[in-house]
Write a structure and sequence with these properties.
mainly beta; disordered N terminus; 3 helices
């Protein structure tokens, strides 16, 4: 079974070491889930800086909040958010861009909103561009060095197309004066 799963994995999703600072990349149920009515988050990450290559740069910008509060119980609300993600690497040869939206519903499980349950859904548009003219492959090595006019023999990579997909998740939240605990599950790329 592990071999089956390893054959279906295609790429690494964006992962931030301080994941709590980017809730929309973790779970769509977290859209609007917070103390403030609105939240704006910007993250810039560089990785593989010391590897001797051009680093992979990730930019994330998200905006989310409470779109509609129940007028009889403001602890129950509809949340929503937008997320922009972009990866750039290999000295400009690789670029991946995603636009995401999320909608969530939060229901308080008690009168003081110490415990809550949220469910969220969302969609994404993602596009990856690889500029082969900036890359060299082993098949392009000739007796006189690398010749980028030779074929790359990497045909599968030239057929990368933009895609649309959906995602969903649920979370349980426990908030006290000294504790902020969220646990949940989310699934991504349902239609890819």
């Amino acid at each position: 079974m592990a071999m089956h799963w390893s054959n279906t994995l295609y790429a690494q999703d964006p992962i931030f070491s301080q994941f709590f600072a980017s809730p929309l990349t973790v779970n769509p149920a977290l859209a609007g889930n917070g103390d403030a009515n609105w939240r704006l988050v910007g993250i810039r990450r560089n990785q593989w800086i010391s590897a001797g290559t051009d680093p992979l740069n990730t930019t994330s910008l998200s905006f989310d909040g409470k779109l509609y509060k129940n007028k009889y119980d403001e602890h129950n609300y509809i949340g929503g958010g937008l997320l922009f993600l972009q990866d750039n690497g290999l000295a400009g040869a690789y670029k991946s861009t995603s636009f995401n939206f999320a909608l969530s519903s939060h229901i308080s499980l008690d009168a003081d909103d110490v415990q809550g349950l949220s469910a969220g859904i969302g969609g994404t548009y993602s596009n990856t561009i690889i500029d082969f003219s900036q890359l060299s492959f082993a098949s392009q090595l000739s007796s006189s060095g690398f010749n980028r006019t030779l074929p790359t023999n990497e045909a599968y990579m030239s057929s990368i197309k933009p895609y649309y997909s959906a995602f969903a998740g649920i979370t349980y939240t426990l908030r006290t004066e000294t504790t902020n605990f969220d646990i949940g599950i989310a699934g991504y790329r349902f239609f890819r």
